[in-house]
Amino acid sequence: MATFISVPLKKSSEVDLVKPLSKFVTATYPPGEEQTEYLRAVEELNKLRKSALGRPLDKHESSLEILLRYYDQLCAIEPKFPFPELCLTFTWKDAFDKGSLFGGSVKLALASVGYEKTCVLFNVGALASQIASEQNLDNDEGLKTAAKFYQLASGAFAHIKDTVLSALNREPTMDISPETVGTLSQIMLSQAQEVFVLKATADKMKDAIVAKLANQAADYYGDAFKQCQYKENLPKEVLPVLAAKHCMMQATAELRQSALANQKKKFGEEIARLQHATELVKTAASRYDEYVNVKDLSDKINRALTAAKKDNDFIYHDRVPEVKDLEPIGKASLVKATAVQTPLSQKFSDLFEKMVPMAVQQSVSAANSRKADTVNRLIGSMREATNLCNGVLASLNLPAALEDLSGEAVPQSILEKSRAVVQQGGLQSIEQLIKDLPELLQRNREILDESFKMLDDEEATDNELRAKFNQRWNRTPSGDLYKPLRAEGNNFRSVLDKAVQADQVVKERYTAHCEMIALLCKPENELSAAIPSANPAKTLQGSEVVNVLRAQLAQLDEVKREREVLEGEVKSVTFDMTTKFLTALAQDGAINEEALTASELETRYGSHTQRVQQNLRRQEELLSQIQVSHQEFSALKQSNSEANNREEVLKKLASAHDSYIEISSNIKEGTKVTNSYLTQLQRHCLCSELQQSIAREPSAPSFNVPSYQSNTPAPAPGGPTPAKPQPPARPPPPNITPQAASTSAPISTPVPPGSTNPPPVAPPTGPSQAQGPPYPTYQGYPG
């Protein structure tokens, strides 16, 4: 479809790793088998760097594997060697120095293994992009491979964006700056999404799926374009490619969505989307023709548009909506930047896996002992609190004392009515319907007023022409022609006036049952609690003391569950002090184990300790409150008497359900019918009645063309006066298109005063009437 963007590799100067690293090994470890093993590992590391960076790399996965292994090894040895003290300097050139993509500094040399890691990871992303661009996208394997490596490249560049400043502690070269690598990451992600669009197309997936994938790809390319367009160092080829890809992906989405509209018999929408797609590919072809090839896509869209217009013009006559009125196409992303998590290579084996000094081993053992003491202290305090809580509740016979207050079950009929109300939207649904009534009424009045205005304007034009041409204007007067439409409009106006009174009745009825409708919307347990019990012992169910006690017990259960979660989190905390001890040993020559371990324990367990203390204080407060509430509950249980209003409440609930169903049904049905009738009236005023009535009128009598209408020169001043103008011919039946039917343009264009030529007579055609159901939002009157 179009050229894919790939990133060039950075180039590094040769570095001798053997001398400085071997010096550290011999100074740190005594002579012996272990030292020999580490010296041999240093030699292997130096060879690995030469293989990864010292020669041109093929655009193949085997070359990428070498880069990944070297990056993993750098991550593994970074905490084991004091690189800042080794005077080991890494020099890298800017990948875009020659202007292939982004300009920048020539080179940068830093004594930082973090800088080396950043540049190697950049090459990982660059080589992955090159491998992906070399794939054959005509087969399934090539598509899968391309998508995989574009996502890997995106993840590599995104990781550099997040870490480069902290890794270098200075301004980086332009190619690895956060802005540049952030843009590269977005470009790679966009291309990966485009590959999935191609795969979905090749797999003949549904039009709806391809449309969402393509729309998401267009969105990604648009984001990448925005990130690029304000960069002064951007070469000319990147922005046009991104802009062209954005247009082409959006056009592809519209093409697929138009096919979906055709399947749903929305032929006007189909044409609108194809027209929009045509504009997009024309933009891409006219502005970015040297970068992309849109001919195949353009031909496909044009063929579909031609067929759709032909079918609509001769068969369906569906209204073609404006592009801005079309429902937005959904989006579906199948790509994600691959997270950089070491090891990246599946074949990685740490060359210095055993490199841990004896001092570090002893410090790690002591640190683990301190960690175990901290964990045992936290868990022991929480378990002790749980035992205390269980003992207090057992002494109060809780929650057993509340279990016999569940009351009688809610009748099945009431439960069914409750479910019916909830399924129809509940209280919120009917409140919204009532809230929309004034707006619907106002809109319907505007539709009606606009319909009468159309008739008035047409009648005024007819009277003006009749007065000008007298007997020669022999068309039936508009007042007689459209009398049935005016009568129908007056009838609707009367209906709207009565609707105002009906709305007030609906509101009053709703207000009377609002409370019980709200009760029906509640869950079964709340509904059961609100219905009085027929058993004297169960009337405590709704008392405030019982509710408070239940709430306090629920809060106490939540506190206990929080402790269980906390205990699991405390046990799951894992950390290894080896790295910190290695760094301290390399920098200071000794390890302050107690200080380092205490600091790490505070970092890892400080928040847990605070949460445990808060939890214990909360339990203490709740137990105190529960004891007070239990005393009140015991007294109330002895003094309460039986309530007999259960049946009355059930009656009110049943009545509320019936009122809800009736009110909701009446409002919905009334609104639907009124909107349908009024929109139908408006369409009649726009096209049907005018077109068919005018078409039945006889044509204007033929007459000879007078000399003043011929192509002779105008008479000189003082010459003979031109003859009196003739009336225009009977207006032809208007060719009402869906767009015209939805605007407030006049029905016919009157002849301007002083005009001498009659309007051209259109060839006779069948009446054309807007198709489709009435629309709920009226667009005909001027804003």
UniProtKB/TrEMBL annotation:
Top-level taxonomic group: Eukaryota
PROSITE patterns assigned: BRO1
Annotated signal peptide: none
Pfam family, one: ALIX_LYPXL_bnd
Major localization listed first in the record, in broad terms: other
CC terms in the record's Gene Ontology section: endosome; Flemming body
Biased composition (Low complexity): 767-783
Chain intervals with Pro residues compositional bias: 714-736, 749-766
Domain BRO1: 3-393
Region (Disordered): 699-783
InterPro entries the UniProt entry points to: ALIX_V_dom, BRO1_dom, BRO1_sf
Gene Ontology BP terms: mitotic cytokinesis
Extent of Polar residues compositional bias: 701-712
Compartments reported by the entry: Midbody, Midbody ring
PANTHER family: PCD6 INTERACTING PROTEIN-RELATED, PROGRAMMED CELL DEATH 6-INTERACTING PROTEIN
Name the UniProt record assigns to this protein: Programmed cell death 6-interacting protein
Organism listed in the record: Cyprinus carpio (Common carp)
